[in-house]
Amino acid sequence: MKKFLIILSVCMTCVNTANGQIINKTPLSIRQTGYKIDAKLDPSLKTVSGNMEAFWVNKSTDIVPDIQLHLYMNAFKSKNSTLYRESGGRLDYKDSDNGWIDIKSFTCGDGTDLIPRMQFISPDDGNLSDQTVLKVMLPEPALPGDTVFIKVSFETKLPSKIMRTGYTDDFYFVGQWFPKFGVYEYAGMRYATKGGWNCHQFHAHSEFYSNHSVYDVKITVPKEYIVGAGGMLISESDSDTGGKNKTLTYRAEDIVDFAWTAWPGFKVFTDQWEHVKITLLLPKVRGEQVERQFIAIKNALEYLAKNVGPYPWPYVTIVDPPAKGSGSGGMEYTTLFTSYSFYMVPKYIHLPEMVTIHEFGHAYFMGIMASNEFEEPWLDEGVNSYWEERIMDHYYGENSGMIDLSYLKIADKSLSRLSYVHSGGRQAASNKEFSWNYPHRTYGMMSYNKTATWLYTLMGIIGEETMNEVFREYYKKWAFKHPSGTDFTDVVNNVVKRIHGTRFGPDMNWFFDQTLYGTGICDYKVATFKNNKLETSKEQNDGADSVNETLMIHDSLYKSVVELERVGEVMLPVDVLVHFKNGEEVLESWDGKSRFKDFVYTGTRMIEWVKIDPEFKIRMDVNYINNSRTEKPDRVPLRRLTNKLISFLQFFISIVSI
Ligand SMILES: [Zn+2]
User: Fold this and answer.
1) What CA–CA distance (Å, rounded) separates 33 from 429?
2) Residue 74: which of 13, 158, 14 has the closest Cα?
3) How confident is the model at residue 657, as a pLDDT?
4) CA separation for the pair 620, 419 (Å, rounded)
5) Which residues contact 125 (CB under 8 A, 6 or more apart)?
6) How far is the CA of 355 from the centre of ligand 1 (A)?
7) Which of 208, 413, 544, 592 lies in disulfide reach of 550, CB 3.0 to 4.6 Å?
């Protein structure tokens, strides 16, 4: 053991008991990293100064010569940062709006000064002006099992024009604000890891990747400020004799990031769901939304606990930021998240509920299952959107989860599907790209909407109960670890095989190759159907008893043909419902593989209409209008109008939602 290293158990004890309180006696994660931070907000300078003690444990079998840390706030430091370059004008800053993080001192366990050993690196794009990743060479390499202990004093200047983090006037949302370890990956941690430090730069279109950690954080603010933070509030006390400032102490266990907010205008409400204390902070004028918000989060807690796994923390905090801080709305930090609403949102628009349910859901998909959001954002945003849509439509009406008016009802899942279907770039990218490389503005569509839509399609094929079992298994196997996409698809393959045998093939990779990793579209079409009178030969009628009867048989015999077509590249099994004029119906199954498919019926019945996928199981189908055909006067123009109206509404809602 090297001098600058502190034995793991000593370090863990030191961090675990920092505030004299442990929430969970048995750690939920392996706690490869931990942080103890003493932070103070200076509202006049818009800074947070902090003293931090932190550790990283080398769980690999490698000899590791360095540590790497995120300095996210430097993304706001200059117009040459990678975040700024990728933001497409969203960060139109004056210099006074900038944010940054300055390292004032940096030592390791034995007091060795690490500042001369610091170096900014840009592993993603080689941008030498980007200062969001810091590499620090250790005085001596960390051997397997060693714990590296660091002490850092830093000053963070918050940016204005909040983009996830920053301030407006006296409202502060403090995220990505302290030096934070990257993730040191090693064999077996997740599928096909390259090993070594995984520490990406701060990008406009990607989120984060972190170890589950323990946080002991003291926050000092002027007394009039109301504070919300991740974790559990342990104590609150005056921090100076004049009584101008107060210090709040928080402890959080096994969460992937720690964020906090401070604003004198917050009103605080609390509620309880089973073991979970719910704290809600919102502007005083939005009091009418308190009940809506509590109902929404309880719905999410109940549904995810039942169908995925238990919510493990005894606390959660919802922050509904004021209008001037809306740039911080709709963001997740595990046990603390921000919702999004405005004064007097009508009850028939379930926007605040949708954002609350979505952001809370991230407690599971990136909080508990802490995937690499930089590299596979669909694992958090897409999977979480799928669950958000299920929850919305379950509790607020299957066809009215998002808008519930007597003359207009829109399901949450329909909005997601429409965003995918109407995206011009839907074929442009596969999920094998990293999130900041998604071309043609496809990040949102790929990460959220396409993923939610193919997950619904998967549920249509394997069934809802099997899908729930997939997620229960995923939770059991990967909770408080770092699953990759392949780890998820492996779970699907195992569960489907266990429940359905080889009914869908040896595995479901044929599905993932086309939907998750493929760029093709799915579109099935009823080309036409015909009811042709049968031409019967004279000999066939020789046995008829009378001329009249023979004529009657001739008149009522038909050869009916349904002609189907696979227009898109994606091949999925579909049901086909054939309805005859006499009221009879036949439900056919088509494996959907060939370009053309006919179903032929001979008899006295005539086809009246045909519908592919009558239960809308294959939600990846980009065109529902050509899924059915009827003999009756076609209402296609009306349907087109309705479709356009829905698209317009979807566009409108996308402007006001996150
Ligand atoms: Zn999200």
Assistant:
1) 35
2) 158
3) 36
4) 11
5) 82, 201
6) 9
7) 544
Q: What is the CA radius of gyration of the chain?
A: 29
Tokens at residue 424, please? Answer: 């011009």
**Residue 161 backbone phi and psi in degrees, to 5:** 50, 75
Distance CA(316)–CA(363), nearest Å, equals 9
Task: Give the three-state DSSP class for 421.
Answer: helix
With CA atoms as reference, report the closest residue to 148 among 49, 55, 10: 55
Length of the chain: 658
Nearest to residue 293, comparing CAs of 233, 242, 355?
Answer: 355
Residues 616, 413: Cα–Cα separation, whole Å: 12
Nearest to 368 by CA among 484, 493, 480, 212: 480
* Residues whose CB falls within 8 Å of the CB of residue 559, separated by 6 or more in sequence, listed in order: 532, 534, 600, 601, 602
Separation of alpha carbons 232 and 276, rounded Å: 11
Provide the pairing of β-strand 133-142 with 213-222.
unpaired
C-alpha 448 – ligand 1 centre gap (Å): 8
655 CA → ligand 1 middle, Å = 16
Output the 3-class SS for 93-147: CCHHHCCEEEEEEEEECCCCECHHHEEECCCCCCCCCCCCEEEEEEEEEECCCCE
In whole angstroms, what is the distance from residue 318 CA to residue 281 CA? Answer: 6
d(CA 531, CA 653): 45
Distance, CA 361 to ligand 1 centroid (Å)? 8
3-state secondary structure of 399: coil
Is the confidence at residue 263, as pLDDT, over 80? yes
Average pLDDT, the chain: 88
- For 9-99, list the strands marked E by DSSP: 33-42, 47-57, 64-70
Between β-strands 574-580 and 585-590, what pairing exists: parallel, antiparallel or unpaired? antiparallel
pLDDT of res. 69: 98
Write the pLDDT tens digit of every residue in 112-133: 999 999 999 999 999 999 999 9
Q: In this predicted model, what pLDDT tens digit does every residue of 190-202 receive, in sequence order?
A: 887 789 999 999 9
Pairing mode of beta strands 260-263, 245-255: unpaired
Please check whether residue 397 is in contact with residue 351, taking contact to mean a CB–CB distance below 8 angstroms. no
Question: How confident is the model over 48-68, as pLDDT tens digits?
Answer: 999 999 999 999 999 999 999
d(CA 357, ligand 1 centre) in Å = 10
pLDDT in tens, 353-396: 999 999 999 999 999 999 999 999 999 999 999 999 999 999 99
| CA 381 – ligand 1 centroid, Å | 5
Strands 33-42 and 213-222: parallel
Rounded Cα distance, 355 and 352, in Å: 5
CA 257 to centroid of ligand 1, rounded, Å: 15
Rounded distance between C-alpha atoms, residue 233 and residue 250, angstroms? 5
* pLDDT class of 632 with cuts at 50, 70, 90: low
Instruction: Compute, in angstroms, the gap from residue 359 CA to the centroid of ligand 1.
Output: 6
Q: What percentage of residues in the chain have a pLDDT greater than 70?
A: 87
Give the pLDDT band of residue 427 (cuts 50, 70, 90). Answer: low
In angstroms, rounded to a whole number, what is the distance separating the alpha carbons of residues 372 and 434?
Answer: 10
